[in-house]
Design a protein that fits this description.
Strand content: 15-25%
Shape: elongated
Pfam families: WCX, WYL
Number of strands: 12
Largest sheet: 5 strands, antiparallel
InterPro entries: CBASS_pafABC_assoc_protein, WCX_dom, WYL_dom
């Protein structure tokens, strides 16, 4: 039994190619687990195990051992149906959120999960991924072209807290400029991936669209992080929803919806302090504290004549001006 346990431990210690481990390192780690043995015994075990498992040696002296790059995941106990289903859902929904290195390291488990579920074809667990989908409530857009190497460098830099150097162009510009970027967070706003970052040693926060990078190179320098920066707090300030002006805060929004237009807000409130009243005619009056952003304006405009902005007065005036401009625009077409 000791021999079997020792060999199981050895198999779990061996990394996937191109990483490797020497027999000396295996000997040290086995001893730490309470399995004292000789280096010759370890070498003999590895030679035997390599005939049954997808192990390979680099042929050097001392030899370095690896699992083959495409080897199926080895695990004890084996992957059950629940674990297989979990890995499939991770691959489907979380892959865009994880660093490429993490996805690569999980690839054997994901392939193993596919194989297990394929054997259960026609049974309930295998069909679960086909029964769960996510959709966007906004107008679907095609994703901009994003160089794979840029995405990989950005994810790796964020994962390792490292700077990277990239050639970036600002919106409506054609020339690229070289920036040293301190990645602080990644925000996926379908279909665009944004990087929240600082540049060089400056402390002001920038939001960079990853698809506007032409190239990127990982640096070994650690990131310079502003003191107290928190991505959640930054997002809660409405910074990613395009503030109407630098430093714009919140407003107390008062609007009146036609029932069909606003009923969903009774179930999915705009804010934690939202208050609503419904008139006898069915109109829904809503008050809520919300960030003062362009996104708020676009959202309200999407309801057309199904909503009336009552307050703040400045926002009501904005909508009056926009409505007059829209009326003139369509009137010109008819004249």
């Amino acid at each position: 039994m000791d021999t079997l346990l020792r060999q199981w431990l050895m198999l779990r210690m061996i990394p996937r190619h191109p990483r490797k481990i020497s027999t000396a390192d295996i000997e040290t780690r086995l001893a730490a687990e309470g399995f004292g043995t000789t280096r010759r015994t370890i070498q003999r075990d590895l030679d035997k195990l390599s005939t049954k498992f997808q192990l390979c040696s680099d042929g050097n002296k001392p030899a370095g051992w690896s699992w083959q790059a495409d080897a199926e995941a080895f695990d004890v106990p084996g992957m059950d149906t629940t674990a297989a289903l979990t890995f499939r859902m991770v691959e489907t929904f979380l892959a865009p959120l994880l660093p490429r290195t993490c996805i690569a390291s999980l690839q054997p488990q994901m392939q193993r999960a596919k194989n297990i579920l394929a054997q259960l074809e026609g049974q309930a667990p295998a069909s679960w991924p086909d029964k769960v989908k996510t959709i966007s409530r906004s107008q679907p857009l095609l994703a901009p072209e994003l160089p794979a190497e840029v995405l990989e460098v950005a994810y790796e830099a964020l994962f390792r807290d490292r700077r990277f150097c990239g050639a970036y162009r600002n919106r409506e510009e054609t020339d690229y400029r070289d920036y040293v970027v301190n990645p602080l967070g990644l925000v996926i706003a379908e279909p665009v991936v944004y990087l929240v970052a600082t540049l060089w040693d400056y402390t002001d926060i920038r939001v960079l669209a990853l698809h506007r990078f032409k190239s990127a190179e990982l640096l070994e320098d650690p990131v310079t992080r502003p003191v107290g920066f928190d991505l959640d707090a930054y997002l809660q300030q409405g910074e990613m929803m395009l503030p109407v002006s630098p430093g714009a805060k919140t407003i107390r929004l008062v609007v009146e919806f036609a029932r069909d237009a606003g009923y969903h807000l009774l179930e999915s409130p705009l804010s934690t302090d939202q208050q609503t009243t419904t008139s006898e005619e069915g109109f829904i009056r809503l008050e809520a504290t919300v960030p003062d952003t362009l996104q708020l304006r676009w959202w309200l405009l999407g309801f057309g004549d199904g909503v009336e902005v009552l307050a703040p007065a400045s926002l009501r005036e904005e909508f009056k001006t926009m409505i007059r401009s829209m009326s003139e625009l369509y009137a010109e077409e008819d004249s």
